[in-house]
Amino acid sequence: MDTVTASFFAAEGPPEAEFHPGIARRMAHKTVAAGALIRDPTGRILFVVPNYKPYLDLPGGIVETGEPPSAACRREVLEELGLDRPTGRLLVVDWTPGRDPWSDQVQFVFDGGVLDPATDLRPAADELTGVRWLPLEDATIRASLHRRLSLALTALTTGEPIHAEMGHRHQ
């Protein structure tokens, strides 16, 4: 547990006891993921090429138990690309339903900032086959990710984070 998380827990006091033992284990558990929207000076988006699915994706990944989404985003970008960058502000929180074999997810998109495309990136060979700098409209991605990234680009210009469900803005 990092020092920030430990200080959050310390400020909260002791854990709350269950009134009905075992209820917490029976509650639904969602997968949480965090990704970074990294752009180059021309506005192209940095996509990773996973070796375990047919579509491009954002740098990022699954949030570990007890890990804040922003810390997971920074850790995943470092693990996947060898790039240690502070996590910027939240752009989008998007829920996606489960589809076999995946459970439903809450996905956070953070501002990864602007990066020179000549930056030395080292894609993790165990999960990526490379990276691509592409305009959003040229990326081969799932429709829900396209919608989510469109919302993230909107959030960049408005300065307001957006709540979405399967890439559709929630009103």
UniProtKB/TrEMBL annotation:
Membrane as UniProt keyword: no
Record domain Nudix hydrolase: where: 29-156
Record-level Gene Ontology MF annotations: hydrolase activity
Cofactors required: Mg(2+)
Alphabetic keyword roster: Hydrolase, Magnesium
Annotated SUPFAM superfamilies: Nudix
Pfam families: NUDIX
Keyword rRNA-binding: no
PANTHER family named among the record's database cross-references: GDP-MANNOSE MANNOSYL HYDROLASE (PTHR43046)
Name of the protein: NUDIX hydrolase
UniProt source species: Dactylosporangium maewongense
